[in-house]
Amino acid sequence: MFEQTFKNIDDVLWKEAGCSSELDYTEQTSWMLFLKYLDDLEAARAEDEELRGNDYEFIIDAEHRWSSWAAPKNADGSFDHDSALTGDDLITYVDEELFPYLKGFKQRASSADTIEYKIGEIFGEIKNKFQSGYSLRDALELMDKLQFKSQKEKHELSHLYETKIKNMGNAGRNGGEYYTPRPLIRAMIKVASPTIGETIYDGACGSAGFLCESYDHLRYGSDGKEAKLSVDQLRSLQTSTFYGKEKKSLAYVIAIMNMILHGIDTPNILHTNTLADNLADVQEKDRYDIILANPPFGGKERKEIQQNFPIKTGETAFLFLQHFIKYLKAGGRAAVVIKNTFLSNSDNASKSLRKELLESCNLHTVLDCPGGTFLGAGVKTVVLFFEKGAATRKTWYYQLDPGRSLGKTNPLNDDDLKEFIELQKDQQESEKSWVVDFKDVDQESFDLSVKNPNAPEEAPLRSPEEILAEMVELDKETADVLGVVRGML
C-alpha cells in the first residue's frame, strides 16, 4: 500500500542537491516520518479524550503541528495549496522556526524518558538537508499520504523503513554499524529466549534491530501469530522491557523511529557514549536480564575512556564486551557479535578478556559466521552466547556454512540458521558442530579459536605426476576423436 509512496519520496530526495547518499535519504525521511507519526498519534489521542468528554493537551502547539504547516487541509479534507508554504519561505520556516522550536523540547521536558525529551533530542541532532523548498513541498505532500492509524499500517511502514536501513547499511563501508542481518538477530534471540518481564539491553544499538526484533518475538512469537497478552504485559513491553544506548546522532534518530514504527511509543534509548560509563559504579539496579548486541569493531577509544575498564585496550569491541559482562544480571543471558580474531589474539588484553569471560560466565555456544555475513564489513565474525554467574565447563561450536557465497544479492536467510537453532538446543555434534571441554583449553593463552574436528576430510591434492598422466591420456583421446572426424570428411 505504502511502497510506491516511499519510492516516490526517494525520487524527490534523489533530485535534491542537499542529499547525496542513502544515509541522507534515510535521515531526511526519518524526521518527516516522525512528525507525521506524531501528528497522527496526537489526533488519535485528542479523539479518545473528546469521546470521554475531556480536553486533550497537545504536545506540539497549533502553529507547529504537521497539519498546520506541512499539510494544511480545506474544510472538505483536500490539500490547501493556497496556505501551504513552499519555495524559500518553506525552507526558512523549517530551518529558522520549526527545528529550533522542536529542539527546545529537550530543555522543557520533565524527564529523559518522555516523548517531549525524545523530540528535543532528535531535532537537536538532525538537520534539514533540503535546499529546494519545492522539493521539500513535494516530499511533505507524499509523506502526508502515509497513515499510522492502525497496527497493520504501522507494521507495513516498519517493513519499508527496515528496507531503507538495510539499503543504508549496504551503501556504506561501515554497513554493519547500521544493519545486522535480521536472520542472524532472530537466531540470537531464539537462543537467548527472552520472556515477558525480563529486561533486554543493547548498549550499541545502532538502528535498534535487536530491540525491534525482540519486541516482535515477544509480541508475535516465531510463528508470527499475535500473543494473547494482558494489559500489564503490554504496558511492560511498552515501557520497561527494551533499553538501548547509541553514540552516533543519525543512528540514534533512526533507532527511535524504528522502535516507534514497531509499536513502542516512547523508546528507552539514550543518546550517549556507552563506554563513558565507569564499570566500578555499576550497581544491581543498572543490570539487565538479557543483552543482545553487535558492537562496533576496530574503533579506537581515548585513554580516559579506557580508564573506565579493568582490562585496558583501545579496541572498542573489547571494551563493549567488558561493559556487557558487567551489566548482565547474575543468571542473565547474552549473545554478542565480535570479530573472530578475539578467540585467538595473543595480546595481553585479549588473553585477559577471554580468561574473564570463561571464569565469570558460562560461554556455552560459539557460532562461527562465514565471510560476507556483514555486507561491506570485510571481517569474519563469531557470536558469543554466554550466561553470567557460573564458569565455563564446555563450549559448543557451530560452523555456519550456507553452501554458497554470501553477498548483496545473496544474503543470509532464516533457513541458513535452522540447523544451528535445532542442534543448539541439545548441543549435538555433527559435521558442522563440536564440543570443546574447558580442561582442554590452554590455561595460559585461553585460545578459543575455531578448529572443527568433525569436518569431512577433503580429498587430498593429486601429485603432479598424476595430473600430467591424465593430460597425456586426454590428449590421446582428443587425437583419436580428430582421426575419426578426418575419416568422415
Automatic annotation (TrEMBL):
Positions of the N6 adenine-specific DNA methyltransferase N-terminal domain: 4-77
Residues annotated as domain DNA methylase adenine-specific: 153-458
Any Pfam family hit: N6_Mtase
InterPro entries (UniProt xref): D12N6_MeTrfase_N (IPR022749), DNA_Adenine_Mtase (IPR051537), DNA_methylase_A-5 (IPR003356), DNA_methylase_N6_adenine_CS (IPR002052), SAM-dependent_MTases_sf (IPR029063), T1MK-like_N_sf (IPR038333)
Reaction catalysed by this enzyme: a 2'-deoxyadenosine in DNA + S-adenosyl-L-methionine = an N(6)-methyl-2'-deoxyadenosine in DNA + S-adenosyl-L-homocysteine + H(+)
Domain of life: Bacteria
Protein EC: 2.1.1.72
Keyword Transcription attached: no
Keywords on record: Methyltransferase, Restriction system, S-adenosyl-L-methionine, Transferase
Keyword Transferase: yes
GO MF annotations in UniProt: DNA binding; N-methyltransferase activity; site-specific DNA-methyltransferase (adenine-specific) activity
GO biological process: DNA restriction-modification system; methylation
PANTHER family: SLR6095 PROTEIN (PTHR42933), TYPE I RESTRICTION ENZYME ECOKI METHYLASE SUBUNIT (PTHR42933:SF4)
Assigned protein family: Belongs to the N(4)/N(6)-methyltransferase family.
Protein name: site-specific DNA-methyltransferase (adenine-specific)
Organism of derivation: Maridesulfovibrio salexigens (strain ATCC 14822 / DSM 2638 / NCIMB 8403 / VKM B-1763) (Desulfovibrio salexigens)
Source organism phylogeny: Bacteria, Pseudomonadati, Thermodesulfobacteriota, Desulfovibrionia, Desulfovibrionales
